[in-house]
Amino acid sequence: MKLFYSKAPFNFLGISNQNFDNAKVVILPIPYDATTSYKSGTRDGPKAIIDASRHLEHYDIETKKVFSNIGFFTLDELECSVNSVQETLERIQNTIEGILAAKKFPVIIGGEHSITLGIVKAISKTYKNFSILQFDAHGDLRDEYEGSKFSHACVMRRCSEITNVTQVGIRSICQEEANFLENTNKVKTFFGNEFNVIEVINSLNENVYITIDIDSLDLSIMPSTGTPEPEGLSFKQILDLIKEVGKKKNIIGIDLVELAPIPGNVAPDFLAAKLLYKTIGYSVKT
Known about the structure:
Blueprint: E1 25-30, H1 45-53, E2 59-60, E3 65-66, E4 72-74, H2 85-101, E5 105-110, H3 115-126, E6 130-135, H4 155-160, E7 164-170, H5 175-182, E8 187-191, H6 197-202, E9 207-213, H7 235-248, E10 250-257, H8 267-283
Parallel strand pairs: 1-4, 1-5, 5-10, 6-7, 6-9, 7-8, 9-10
Antiparallel strand pairs: 2-3
């Protein structure tokens, strides 16, 4: 019997002959979905993004570059803990610390947004002067949600205890979060889908970690997320800002989170894969 196999390996971009030593970029999928508060499904996000990425053209028309030439290596999915969020965060932190120790640029595919805290804790061990650029529909600044301080609704509150945060695209916060923003200098928030690029860049430190919650995009192009909000950012808005940040600052890592794939609708998966690919291209110095 003749057997047929896909020619594209199941890693980001379907790259043949991955080489960890030669790669600049190391991609870590984290299929985590423990604290989502409306619709679940983010555990399927990494697989959907990697699958869609295998059909991306590596050549970028805008820059006339092949970003994958810098070297990409996709790790196996992180095994998340079923015991507690904290245990999963510790595993994430340890893994990212290893990636950074190997002098690689970390790119994380989630999974829900709570995973960012483990990444930021690892980043803080290597970079002292860094800030976070957060693309999101939600503030994620609650001190506690549903009895947990480690919910995806609290992740940027916890991150702000480590370093400064600049938020872009925020369209939904609660009263507690509004009160917090009035009384903190750790978080700078740009509400809605309009912002001044220079003001955003000036709010950031020299080193910048980027976290992209996919619900920052308008729900007309990104319905595949657990808590969609109207009047979101466009694909171009996010990339134009990241491009300018990459010119002015040193981007030190990226995560893309909260994709909850909708069966039969692959367009959002492909959008997320391309958004991530171009973000990497704008971020990693060659």
